[in-house]
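Lecture notes, unit on protein representations.

Consider one protein chain, 254 amino acids long.
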Amino acid sequence: MTLTLQDIDHLNIIAHWLAVNDADSDRQALRADLMILAGNAILPTIDGAFALMVQNDMPVILSGGVGHSTALLRSVLHEAQVVSHAESEARLLADAAVQRFALSADRLMIEDQSRNCGENAAFSRRTLQARGLTAQRILLVQDPLMQRRTAETFHHEWQRHGLAVDFISWPVFVPQLVIQDGEPTIGGAGSQQGLWSLDRYVAMVLGEVRRLRDDKQGYGPQGLGFIGHVDIPHAVEHAWQRLMAQPELADEAR
């Protein structure tokens, strides 16, 4: 894949918007009653979530069954020397929490049936209700490129059931493409271990905007109805349109 400097600028504009970070400059914003870590394969995000748990007594729901990221997560954790024979993303994450951060399994609530973002939200809500638990302030942690859609989905699910919750989005880091040794490189995480391949990164950036659009092909009220209406900033829409006008990049979007 060949990316021009303008392509990289456009991708960075979109990625910064997707990786909504409510605690960008204020770590106090991370205080919450509960964390929900949705299944993903981005190691710096996973490690960041568990490192925060080490610092406080916040319980966590690990949400994820078998889905598109499961094989990637298993591979990433294997490279990080996590030994696990678990099938679901939630249980793979639980093994990582115990082995990499010595977290007690008693703090981990497992939701291992969800297959997509919508089910992450619905089944996490049911997990809380089944345990008779309530939370007024919930920290949402997800793959940075899926963070905005995850936040919109959880808001939609809770509102649909008349539940008032303050959701705090925290992707742990905000990715950006930089040129390193003449090649586009994903920066922002402090480590290259457990990140997206460049092809997957571009595909996700472009695909997420398509899903967030409120039209017949999107996930909003005019489309599939998985989320509420999302206002896409002009700069993001412009960047996306310019990238999607290139057949090579448009073919990557998923």
